[in-house]
Design goal:
8 helices, Collagenase (Catalytic Domain), about 190 residues, single chain
Length: about 190
């Protein structure tokens, strides 16, 4: 046992006497991409502020159109399913949704946001969700197959950055994402 302890001490001394080089990785934070709107003005409790941001974003990013003038009726509401709806399975299984009344009617925006889901999202995830629903309701986009697209059928991860959102938003507004498909409405 004494030999083992002695050997251990010698190895420890030799190991500690070596110079160790530590590699320090400096991760530079990516500079915030420019955007023509200030996303921090979105009020989490007032869903219309997201609509107003979207309308301004389209006007200043693309030069229009003015969806605030085109869409005469804008219904964007929080939805709180009842206990009975949850128990029956009737409640939506996603955080937000647009409806036939909205996406098949160019005068109307009709979006519901499930309050319980909303409260768990980061500020960027909330922007992502709202622009996703506007993508359905205003542009009539179907879902994308790429998780980096706003039109992907689930809200992005919690670790996305504002730059991730800005890049995805630019693709959405330019109608520039792989496999773009449109919702088919009657008429």
């Amino acid at each position: 046992m004494k030999r083992f302890i002695g050997l251990f001490i010698v190895l420890l001394f030799i190991g500690c006497s070596k110079e160790f080089e530590t590699e320090v990785k400096i991760i530079e934070e990516e500079a915030l991409l420019s955007s023509c709107v200030d996303y921090s003005t979105a009020n989490e409790d007032e869903l219309m502020t997201y609509w107003n941001l979207f309308v301004e974003d389209v006007k200043c990013s693309r030069g229009g159109p003015d969806y605030g003038e085109i869409n005469k009726i804008v219904n964007i509401n929080f939805v709180v399913p009842t206990a009975e709806e949850f128990a029956s399975g009737v409640s939506p299984d996603h955080a937000g949704y647009s409806t036939f009344f909205g996406y098949c009617n160019s005068d109307v925006v009709n979006i519901g946001v499930i309050k319980d889901y909303w409260e768990d999202y980061t500020k960027i995830q909330k922007l992502w969700l709202m622009y996703h629903e506007f993508g359905h309701d205003v542009y009539k986009f179907e879902h994308s197959t790429l998780p980096t697209d706003i039109m992907y059928p689930s809200v992005s991860r919690g670790d996305i950055t504002m730059n991730d959102f800005i890049r995805a938003k630019e693709k959405l507004l330019k109608r520039d994402f792989v496999g773009i498909k449109y919702i088919t409405c009657p008429n």
